[in-house]
Amino acid sequence: MKGVRKTDKFIVLPENINSVLLRLDEHGHTAYIVGGCVRDMCMDIPPNDYDITTSATPDEIERCFSDKRVIRTGIQHGTVTVIINNEPIEITTYRIDGNYADNRHPDSVKFSKKIEDDLARRDFTVNAMCCDKDGNFIDVFGGIEDIKNKIIRCVGDANKRFSEDALRILRALRFASTLEFNIEKHTKEAIRKNAHLLKSISSERIYSEFTKLLCGKNAVDILLEYSDCIGVFIPELLNEVGFEQHNPHHKYDVYEHSVRALDVCSDDAIVRYAVLLHDIAKPICFFTDENGIGHFHGHAKAGESIAYNIMRRLKADNVTCDTVSMLVKYHDYTITPDMRHAKRMLNKFGYENTLRLLEVKSADTSAHVIFDDDRGRHIEEMRMLCEEAYRQQQCFSLKSLAVNGKDIISLGCKEGKSIGKVLDALLWEVIDEKLCNEKDVLLERAKDIIKTCQENIVD
């Protein structure tokens, strides 16, 4: 044991957390905040939440907080939730885990009175530290030193840690991505050896961890180094690895191109998934011409359904599945940077998704062999035009048109489909700047459109 140490930081805990630690202490139990919140404090990152561990058993915890509402949320694992000032606070008894038959959850747990036993079952050294109400740290496995050196290292035997809970494999990669840490040699070897165990993890948990990884600052390096691990749950990406494009516009294989494009992306998860998957159909659409130049005609459209199936398999929500696949389908969408085409894009995709599509296109361009200044400039000009049109509340959708269905009905147009056709015709003339978006002007033009439609029906 490396012992109890006083940190050089002034630790201030939220009032509710401190009150829980204090009450457990007053009743003769030891108690600490533990895990990720301690890691974050060591890194001067405000914790999102606090986990509390204690020598008290669940029954003893309930007696300590008999004046509070106590919920036995995970009693089989020693966890109860105490409601303090309407805030739920989880408290877990020190424990030793039994076997992990499903590579995810312990078959049984044994309560302990020693904090060292509880820390020994945790995943990584940086998450195996605890801190009491007075700021005293217990760091049994050198977590503080690993934080200083920016290292992700398993507690104890890495192979055992990953076989116990295979999700820890993805958590290691996620922490390396989000914290910009390196993975220690033996931990890295165990990740590769046990990566196949990720197949036993639920899609929901995979999606949650991988999304955080994908949005991390070090995502590019992690994705490039651990493509074989990512391929366990997105095997379609393995078809891209080493797939040379044989095209003068590309210096990377398909996978590396897609990953390096993430370098210029925001942390919008939908954009990042779309960029990662934008060329997913290239391997199945590839052919070479008589000069040996590689082409991928139709890969964007073909990629739409592949991307959708991947996102659906990961159990992403419907909006994310639809939006990611749409962005993949249109990532080669031709743009002309003028206001008329900007409004056409806004009409087709909506404001938020237009900006996302332009970001995907910009990322794609950034990972070509030579950055295309004209293409990059056009994308940026189009983004500025779209933002201007949105800011000025210019008309690019039916809801911003100065007339509506009732107005068209008042002109004598009764059939539903015809009303819609008239409104659409007016909208496109406004978008193309052939008409002003003024009610009187639109109604006069609508009369002509209705008359023309009626004459066509008679003919």
Describe this structure in words.
- The protein has 459 residues and is α+β, with helices and mostly antiparallel strands.
- Helices cover 49% and strands 11% of the residues.
- It is built from 22 helices and 14 strands.
- It has helices spanning 15-26, 36-42, 58-64, 115-120, 143-148, 158-164, 167-178, 185-194, 203-214, 219-225, 227-230, 254-260, 269-277, 282-285, 299-313, 318-329, 339-349, 351-366, 373-391, 405-409, 416-431, 439-458; strands spanning 4-6, 31-34, 51-54, 69-74, 79-84, 87-93, 95-97, 109-111, 129-131, 136-139, 151-152, 182-183, 287-288, 294-295.
- The strands form four sheets. An eight-stranded mixed β-sheet has the order 1-10-9-2-3-6-5-4. Strands 7-8 form a two-stranded antiparallel ribbon.
- Helix 7 packs across helix 10 and helix 10 runs antiparallel to helix 12 (254-260).
- The N and C termini lie far apart (94 Å).
